[in-house]
Amino acid sequence: MIDVIKNKLSGIDIKPISEVSLDTIDALFAKEPFPIFEHSSYHVLSYLSYESKVFFLAGEFGQTILVLRDDNFFLFSPLVKDDKEFNQFIECFFEQFNYKKLLIQNISQFWLDSFVNDPIFSIWNLEVHPRSKEEVVYDVELLTELKGKEFAKLRNTRNKFLNKVMHFNAVNSSNLEDVLTVLENWQRYQGFKYSKNRYEKEQFSLRKFAEYFAGLDRFCFEVGYVEEVPLCIVAMHKNNNNVDFGTLYIIKGLNKSEAGGIHGISDAAYCYCFKKAKEMGLKYLNDGELGHEEGTRQHKLRFKPVQFLKSYDVVIGRKNL
């Protein structure tokens, strides 16, 4: 299908995403004042690429990512540099592929507002679908200091585990299986309420992290041990455009004894993330969607989020179809 797209989209440079640098991918999100969870090269090269073919498109309109999945395609959060050219770019899809609608995934409130408030884009019909209603953002300083009675339990957990019994190792080819073991046990005993598809995506992503990002200064990918037993994993990164912001991409801790875990490991893993975030120079940390599952919601709210971000999918179509 990509050969057909290349032939029909004349004047557009199309490359497999594997041939594009991390900095080039991250530049797509350079205008964003508050980075949403998916806006990074780490997401594009891992979770987004699961069972998909991903390409980088560049032309006079700007740049975007094209994802081919299940004989369909969609765009991922375009960087628009010329409004008129972007309109022509969209029109080209409709004309060349006889499409009536075009899906764009994972756009921020900032992107949506910019599009809606620009009169040049009023020629399109726009369907807006909320994707994430409450991405939680933490204050790193608050959660490394942990002052006051409200954080007393978390301070005790940090002191018990991080100062005494836990140690963390950077992930590489020699200990990747420990990471996958933690994920498997977490899914079996704690994450069973989530879909198998999510587990498979996370497994795929962790392998990609080890392949692409291990050793990068702005990426922390580590596995935590108690007496050499792997009990938690953390994967977080510093934003390449707004260096005050980071994203906690995956965190798993085995709290249940039947999983070979220890109560409090998950909180200890979070405390370690906050410590690492401060060492990386971060002020804010995005922990993704607050979600509907009550246990997860309450756990994240205990960390006193200072901001909630939204993201959307939009469907662009011609008016008066």
From TrEMBL:
Task: List the source organism.
Answer: Candidatus Blackburnbacteria bacterium RIFCSPHIGHO2_12_FULL_41_13b
Provide the protein name.
Phosphatidylglycerol lysyltransferase C-terminal domain-containing protein
* One Pfam family recorded for the sequence: LPG_synthase_C
Gene3D superfamilies per record: 3.40.630.30
Instruction: Identify the residues that the record assigns to the Phosphatidylglycerol lysyltransferase C-terminal domain, covering every copy.
Output: 131-312
InterPro entries associated with the record:
Acyl_CoA_acyltransferase (IPR016181), LPG_synthase_C (IPR024320), UCP018688 (IPR016732)
SUPFAM superfamilies associated with the record: Acyl-CoA N-acyltransferases (Nat) (SSF55729)
